[in-house]
Amino acid sequence: MSDKEILLSTDKICKEFTKSDGTKFTACKDVSLQLYRGETLGLVGESGCGKSTFVRTIMGLHPASSGKIFFKGEDITSLSGEKRRAMAKHIQMIFQDPSTAFNPKMRIRDIICEPLRNFAKVSDKEAEARAVALLEKVELAPEIALRYPHELSGGQRQRVGIARALILEPEIIICDEATSALDVSVQDSIAKLLAKIQKERGVSYIFICHDLGLVSLISHRVAVMQQGQIVEELPGDKIQEAQHPYTQKLLSSVFTVRARS
Ligand SMILES: Nc1ncnc2c1ncn2[C@@H]1O[C@H](COP(=O)(O)OP(=O)(O)OP(=O)(O)O)[C@@H](O)[C@H]1O
């Protein structure tokens, strides 16, 4: 990947939280990572190690305590107001349960087009046409455009979440446990859909997931986080060759769980 364009990079990002007793807690420590155009970077680590905090800091949802974030070489660490809002055109996020981010009273057509409406006036007719085109892209029937979120399955809702993330044609999509709430077969179809979209559009993903097997399958590179620090980076297909004891521990727990089930 080294000859490819670096889209996003972080330089020693730290994020500290202040606990209710006033003491400080470091959730991310000196995280320096690069994301190349068209690649999938997996981010793994035990629950609570700081994965979500890191990507939320990239999205500007938490201010970084120190360090820098660059998008195409431009320092975006401290963007605010209009400039921060404009970053949504470049970086979008998909969550574990998109339905919690959906307004239950909105039709799917309007849910998909909502990010667009933050930037431009869109008539209902145009919104419907764009939503239907994106529904096709995520392999859903056009009539879903007029339904409400509760009328869809979890897998269909996640496809709508992907369609919504695509409407602004971002260059980066951050998937935070985007497949974790789904059945294994649905997970597999969503992973295939993400790969197809990447091939067509050259989008880059940061893919956070507990399932090391799935992460290694779909990621070009995998970064391993332990207690807020990156301890190892590996090609996705070489995860079994991990050198760091923490990665080896994560791998062995995957195989212990699989052997039991
Ligand atoms: N807003 C906050 N205020 C204080 N502490 C926080 C806040 N957000 C996260 N934390 C703490 O930071 C640590 C990292 O949390 P984070 O959600 O980033 O982990 P994670 O690796 O994404 O976990 P999971 O895989 O369970 O989602 C945890 O100890 C968490 O309690």
Automatic annotation (TrEMBL):
<feature type="domain" description="ABC transporter">
    <location>
        <begin position="8"/>
        <end position="252"/>
    </location>
</feature>
<keyword id="KW-0067">ATP-binding</keyword>
<dbReference type="InterPro" id="IPR027417">
    <property type="entry name" value="P-loop_NTPase"/>
</dbReference>
<dbReference type="InterPro" id="IPR017871">
    <property type="entry name" value="ABC_transporter-like_CS"/>
</dbReference>
<comment type="similarity">
    <text>Belongs to the ABC transporter superfamily.</text>
</comment>
<dbReference type="GO" id="GO:0005524">
    <property type="term" value="F:ATP binding"/>
</dbReference>
<keyword id="KW-0547">Nucleotide-binding</keyword>
<dbReference type="InterPro" id="IPR003439">
    <property type="entry name" value="ABC_transporter-like_ATP-bd"/>
</dbReference>
<dbReference type="GO" id="GO:0016887">
    <property type="term" value="F:ATP hydrolysis activity"/>
</dbReference>
<dbReference type="InterPro" id="IPR003593">
    <property type="entry name" value="AAA+_ATPase"/>
</dbReference>
<dbReference type="Pfam" id="PF00005">
    <property type="entry name" value="ABC_tran"/>
</dbReference>
<dbReference type="GO" id="GO:0055085">
    <property type="term" value="P:transmembrane transport"/>
</dbReference>
<dbReference type="InterPro" id="IPR050319">
    <property type="entry name" value="ABC_transp_ATP-bind"/>
</dbReference>
<keyword id="KW-0813">Transport</keyword>
<protein>
    <submittedName>
        <fullName>Peptide/nickel transport system ATP-binding protein</fullName>
    </submittedName>
</protein>
